[in-house]
TrEMBL record:
Gene3D superfamilies: Glycoprotein, Type 4 Pilin. It comes from the Bacteria. It comes from Mariniblastus fucicola. Keywords: Membrane, Transmembrane, Transmembrane helix. The chain crosses the membrane at residues 12-34. This is DUF1559 domain-containing protein. Residues 35-332 form the DUF1559 domain.
């Protein structure tokens, strides 16, 4: 007996192309959502890292009755000659033992030639100071102090033979500059490098305790994020603006021995740079990154480089009470300055 089998109709080329197109559209619709989920996870990881660093600063405060100085000097002479002191360490050097980096902490040379340089020297191999450099600390990238969303390099390389220490992405907030609703006089004007403040919690060469924070620890910033890239004056050119500047590293402090307004009473070099701290002067993610338009912005280091990140729309910051918050780039500048000052007498409401 002959049986009739039903004919199986195949896809035409047009139908196949339509199906592929629909799948492509669905993937295109889902991809941004997936990217947003991934960025949300990275932002949360960034906040957790900032929380751990803030906790380390709190543990230091408990042991020393004050938060670590944002940057310190070394009383040793400069290794490459000239007047003035050597660069001392940033606050990161002081809290290594509190972020599970005891082995690095035990290697620290607090009074050597420029303990603020991990590979100390006068710049690159063509500089006379390089031949006399001291290997102060055998350290590489510390993932704890790097934002996972950052698109920037781990460190700056001057040439094939000399690499600066890796960047830090979280800066100690040393205060604010030029507020309009209160008076601030603890300011040192470095000229080209910007205005350095001493009104915050993480100032140069001074350990600020809770007793000096009359605004309250929940109303005062401790650390702010500096991990993104900002467009320069020439369209299409960008700088990765970190807490360590763009050519130095996380251990770098300062070589001047005072605190604003008297930042450099003994310095004769005119080198008043203070690394791994920030004095709030501009809006979050302020562009263009140009000293010509915004004095105090600088590639080597700028005292007033803006808080910035590669997160969408803002940055993570921590307060002196240990909490971590996300500040949008639409935060009013004056509110940001109040938050950066420990004793301006003005308590902010509903900023977060």
């Amino acid at each position: 007996m002959r049986r009739n089998h039903p004919k199986i109709r195949g896809f035409t080329l047009v139908e196949l192309l339509v199906v592929i197109a629909i799948i492509g559209i669905l993937i295109g619709m889902l991809l941004p959502a997936v990217q947003q989920v991934r960025e949300a996870a990275r932002r949360t990881e960034c906040a957790n890292k900032l929380r751990q660093i803030t906790l380390a600063c709190h543990n230091y405060e408990s042991a020393h009755m004050g938060f670590p100085a944002g940057a310190s000097y070394s009383p040793s002479p400069r290794s490459e000659g000239g007047g003035g002191y050597s660069f001392g360490p940033s606050f990161y050097g002081k809290i290594l033992a509190f972020i599970e980096q005891n082995s690095l902490y035990s290697q620290m040379t607090w009074r050597g030639r420029s303990p603020g340089y991990i590979h100390e020297g006068g710049g690159d191999v063509n500089n006379a100071g390089f031949a006399n450099r001291d290997i102060v600390l055998d350290a590489g990238v510390l993932p704890m102090i790097r934002c996972p969303s950052s698109s920037g390099p781990d460190a700056a390389q001057r040439n094939a033979d000399f690499t600066y220490s890796p960047f830090a992405h979280y800066a100690g907030v040393s205060g604010c500059v030029d507020p309009t609703t209160f008076t601030e006089s603890r300011l040192f004007d470095d000229g080209y490098l910007g205005i350095i403040s001493g009104s915050g919690m993480m100032v140069a060469n001074t350990e600020v305790g809770f007793g000096m924070c009359s605004d309250g620890s929940s109303n005062t910033m401790l650390l702010g994020e500096m991990s993104g890239k900002l467009e320069r004056l020439i369209t299409g050119t960008y700088s990765h603006v970190t807490a360590s500047g763009t050519t130095h590293g996380w251990l770098m402090g300062t070589r001047v021995d005072g605190t604003p307004p008297s930042l450099d009473p003994s310095d004769t070099t005119g080198d008043d740079r203070v690394f791994n701290t920030v004095s709030i002067r501009y809006n979050i993610n302020q562009e263009p990154f140009a000293n010509e338009l915004f004095p105090g912005m600088g590639s080597n280091v700028g005292a007033n480089n803006p808080l910035n990140s590669d997160h969408a729309g803002g940055v993570n910051v921590s307060l002196a009470d240990g909490s971590v918050h996300f500040l949008g780039e639409d935060t009013q500048l004056e509110s940001l300055k109040k938050l950066a000052t420990r004793d301006d007498g003005q308590v902010l409401e509903s900023i977060f």
